[in-house]
């Protein structure tokens, strides 16, 4: 074996250990609720807790709503920027990256300060939470859509559709969207994973969600929070796995075709 | 009354004028080609007819209706693109039926029309295929069928064959012409390929730098170019700078060798540029024709013809010989006699 590849293996092993040991430790810990034996009692307790169901389903609802709002906003925007405003693309890209720079706590303060008074006093409405999540998911959703659009000859397909009599809505729904479905799906799964684990926004806007529930659990229980962390990990991984499965290597056209 | 009338059309992008004062009338069922180098404004003009560009000035009338500012999806104009532009997510059948689906035609009509168009492009069994499963030539046929399925008033083709192999290109060229004739559809065809333009069109519009240089039947454009640009762009042309010896008798001197032309010369001219096509020149000394002598600079075998470059003093002329199996090619550097009839040379602008 060459020296170079030996080194790479060493680094990979170190990375895996760094990543998996805590996870494994959490998992083992979560199994130790009953003294002296390994059991899934902690998991049972969580699944039996009505608050778990309530908070978990709330988070699922927030995540799905965020995906819908995100798709409705970002697909037409990314499409229009590619079609008509290629020069503002760097600016738009910068804006979409802002949520990485602005901490969630700053975002939530801004949202509360702005929307607790007229003209839009929606601070108590779940809409504000969904809009906040939409902003947080923007880097993932926008970029996924933009990357998807790159693989499609947007201007020419648009003109082809126009010359056949199609208006903007038809072009978006029948031509653009089906051709970037895979990209939209991967953006959606990322969004789902982020919203499911999010804490700050839900906590400060006082809405039921999985994140604050986990936090509360951590303050009152010992083994359940570890079990909860494992559940949320499994969920994220499942999302990633589905994403990989849906977006497997084939060319965009072939893939869409296969799914027909 | 012309079916499609473009009057005083111009288009400027920022500071540059892409098209200037473009005037053209196209009759119903006619196939008109816009021919010119890239950047000459041919595609911009086509895009104005399609509605993708709004003219800076001028007017477009289709069947008596002013469509100058009408959006593209309201024009009922079919368009075929260089890159095919088929919808990758749809089957061949769905691509062809897209226009009818958009205009909410009944299912039955749609199916029949798709069937009919597949027959027209001679691909009857491929309705269920996806574009990526087709060759470039097949994709472009489907694109043509899709454009024609909506029964457009005008068909626009923007360099439709430029992305295809040479053989397919020629095949499809005749296919397009056949379909166009069958349907009697008014067509504008944009190309930079002069052979395509000459072989396909009822009329050719030669464009340069945003303006029309000349329009006419292919025969006319080739044999009677009106401007130096057309003379240089369409086909290969020898331009001989000659001294006039006797204007009345048509006697000229080129490279110290005298010949005669039947084209009228002005007595006032001391020198003129005489044009002659390569295929009008031949090797050898034919009785009753002009004779010149030169040295062979290069010989290029092109298949059906052999193209030679012959040096006469400071200048060179190009000469085409039809290929035959018994043809003896002259050696590079050897001295050869050329001959051409007096009536085959002409002066630019003469008709």
Describe it.
The complex is a heterodimer of chains A (260) and B (351). Chain A is an all-alpha fold. Chain A has helices spanning 3-30, 41-48, 50-83, 89-101, 104-115, 126-150, 154-163, 168-179, 181-197, 200-204, 210-220, 224-246, 252-259. Chain A has a single domain (43-247), classed as Orthogonal Bundle (MetI-like fold). In chain A, helix 3 packs antiparallel against helix 9. The N and C termini of chain A lie far apart (46 Å). The relative contact order of chain A is 0.13. Chain B is of the alpha+beta class and 351 residues long. In chain B, strand 9 (203-208) and strand 10 form a beta hairpin. In chain B, helix 2 runs parallel beside helix 4 (136-149) and helix 3 crosses helix 4. The two termini of chain B are 28 Å apart. Chains A and B meet through helix 7, helix 8 and helix 13 of A and strand 6, helix 2 and helix 4 of B.
Keywords:
heterodimer; A: 260 residues; mainly alpha; MetI-like fold; 79% helix; 0% strand; B: 351 residues; alpha+beta; Rossmann fold; OB fold (Dihydrolipoamide Acetyltransferase, E2P); 2 domains; six-stranded mixed beta sheet; five-stranded antiparallel beta sheet; 8 helices; 20 strands; elongated
């Amino acid at each position: 074996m060459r020296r170079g590849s030996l080194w790479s293996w060493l680094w990979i092993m170190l990375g895996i250990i760094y990543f998996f040991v805590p996870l494994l430790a959490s998992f083992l810990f979560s199994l130790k609720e009953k003294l002296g034996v390994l059991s899934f009692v902690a998991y049972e307790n969580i699944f039996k807790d009505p608050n778990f169901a309530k908070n978990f389903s709330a988070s699922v609802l927030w995540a799905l709503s965020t995906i819908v709002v995100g798709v409705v906003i970002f697909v037409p925007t990314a499409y229009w920027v590619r079609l008509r405003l290629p020069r503002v693309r760097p600016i738009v890209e910068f804006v979409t990256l802002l949520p990485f720079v602005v901490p969630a706590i700053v975002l939530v303060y801004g949202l509360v300060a702005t929307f607790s008074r007229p003209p839009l006093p929606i601070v108590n409405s779940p809409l504000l939470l969904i809009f906040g999540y939409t902003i947080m998911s923007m880097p993932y959703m926008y970029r996924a859509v933009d990357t998807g659009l790159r693989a499609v000859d947007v201007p020419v397909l648009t003109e082809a559709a126009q010359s056949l009599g199609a208006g903007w809505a038809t072009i978006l729904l029948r031509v653009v969207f089906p051709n970037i479905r895979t990209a939209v799906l991967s953006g959606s799964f990322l969004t789902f994973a982020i919203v499911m684990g999010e804490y700050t926004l839900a906590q400060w806007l006082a809405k039921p969600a999985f994140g604050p529930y986990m936090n509360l659990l951590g303050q009152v229980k010992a083994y359940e929070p570890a079990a909860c962390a494992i559940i949320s990990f499994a969920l994220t991984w499942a999302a990633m796995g589905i994403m990989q499965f849906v977006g497997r290597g084939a060319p965009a056209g072939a893939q869409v075709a296969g799914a027909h | 009354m012309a079916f499609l009338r473009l009057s005083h059309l111009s288009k400027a992008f920022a500071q540059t004028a892409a098209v200037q004062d473009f005037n053209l009338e196209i009759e119903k069922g006619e196939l008109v080609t816009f021919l010119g180098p890239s950047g000459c404004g041919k595609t911009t003009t086509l895009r104005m007819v399609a509605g993708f560009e709004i003219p800076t000035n001028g007017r477009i009338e289709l069947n008596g209706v002013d469509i100058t500012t009408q959006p593209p999806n309201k024009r009922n104009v079919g368009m075929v693109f260089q890159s095919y532009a088929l919808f990758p997510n749809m089957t061949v059948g769905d691509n062809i039926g897209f226009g009818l689906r958009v205009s909410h035609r009944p299912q039955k009509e749609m199916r029949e029309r798709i069937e009919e168009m597949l027959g027209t492009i001679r691909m009857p069994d491929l309705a269920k295929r996806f574009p990526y499963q087709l060759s470039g030539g097949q994709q472009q046929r489907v694109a043509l069928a899709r454009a024609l399925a909506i029964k457009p008033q005008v068909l626009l083709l923007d360099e439709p064959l430029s992305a295809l192999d040479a053989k397919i290109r020629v095949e499809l060229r005749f296919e397009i012409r056949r379909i166009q004739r069958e349907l009697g559809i008014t067509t504008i065809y944009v190309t930079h390929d002069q052979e395509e333009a000459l072989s396909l069109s009822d009329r050719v519009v030669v464009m340069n730098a945003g303006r029309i240089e000349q329009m006419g039947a292919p025969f006319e454009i080739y044999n009677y170019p009106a401007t130096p640009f057309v003379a240089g762009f369409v086909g290969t042309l020898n331009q001989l700078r000659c001294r006039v010896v006797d204007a009345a008798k048509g006697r000229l001197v080129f490279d110290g060798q005298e010949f005669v032309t039947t084209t009228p010369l002005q007595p006032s001219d001391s020198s003129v540029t005489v044009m002659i096509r390569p295929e009008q020149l031949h090797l050898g000394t034919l009785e009753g024709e002009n004779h010149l002598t030169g040295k062979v600079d290069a010989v290029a075998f092109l298949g059906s013809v052999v193209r030679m470059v012959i040096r006469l003093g400071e200048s060179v002329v190009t000469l085409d010989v039809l290929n035959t199996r018994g043809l003896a090619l002259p050696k590079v550097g050897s001295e050869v006699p050329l001959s051409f009839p007096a009536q085959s040379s002409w002066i630019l602008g003469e008709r």
